[in-house]
Every structure is written in structure tokens, then in C-alpha cells.
Amino acid sequence: MESTSESLALAAAGGDGAAFSALLSRHYDALFGLAFRLTGARPEAEDLTQDICAALPAKLASFRGEARFTTWLYRVAVNAAHDRRRRAATHARHADGWGDWELNRRASDAEAAEAADWLTHAMRTLPPDLRDTLALVLDDVTHAQTAQVLGISEGTVSWRISEAKKKLRALRACEDQT
Known about the structure:
Mean pLDDT: 88
Oligomer: single chain
Order of helices and strands: HHHHHHHH
Number of helices: 8
Strand content: under 5%
């Protein structure tokens, strides 16, 4: 003799795993179909159905058998869809404006990366003494420390940085003209 969905639901609410499994087997496709109609898209329907199935063991405690199980289950599904829409709307409101910020941040990062790439390439054109000095200073090494590392005076470090800047400006101007 086959059990009714209502008796399976009551048994599942009491902790009967086999009853819960039978209940899901019996109603999963219909639940997914409703979720698809409520969301309009397969991925969202899959997510909604999964959310409902995951919450169902706890929700079954509120099933009293006064209505048909399918009526109760569909009410659970509609409520879950409404909750999902509210969360999405709240998320969209909170995210409003962040998209522009993120696009600007990415554009700024791209510009910085492009400038760093250009500088790395341009430094290859410098004589080794200027390149070494500039590399150290760009790594936040002080002029005094750079002078120590290279065995030169601080004044020479400053002169080399000035010369490197002149050569890089000239290279940039030449590239901008072409």
C-alpha cells in the first residue's frame, strides 16, 4: 500500500529519512517546474529548488497535515522565491554605484600597469649605471643607501636620477610623436 504525501511529510517531520527521501522523489520534478516558472531561468530554478530542498527538513516541522502536502510545498516554494527576489533587490540596491567604482578602479590599475610596463621597457634603454641607480630608488631605497650600495656619492645618485629622468622624458616625447 502506497503512503500519501501527507503521511510521508508527517513521518519526515518526525525524522524518518526514508519518508523524506520518498517525498522528495515524488515531488522534486513538480517543485523544480514551479521554481522554473517562478524564476524564468534554469540556473536560478536549480538554485531555488536546491535551497528549498535544503531547508525542507526544518520546514516540515510546521506541516500539520491540514492542507494537501503539495499546497503546503508550493506555498513554501513561492515564499522562498519571494525571499530570493527581495535579497537580490537588496543586493542590487547596495551594489548600485559600486560597478562604476570597480570599472574606474580597474581602468586606473590598467593605466598603472601600462605605465609600469612602459617604464620597465624604457629602463632597458638606459646605460647600466643610470638603470641601476634608478632601479634602487624606485624600490624606495634612499639616496644615501643607494650611494652605499653602488659605492658612489649621494650627489652622484641625484645626478644619475636627473639624467635618467631626462632620457626617459626624451624617449616618451619621441614615442608620442610617432
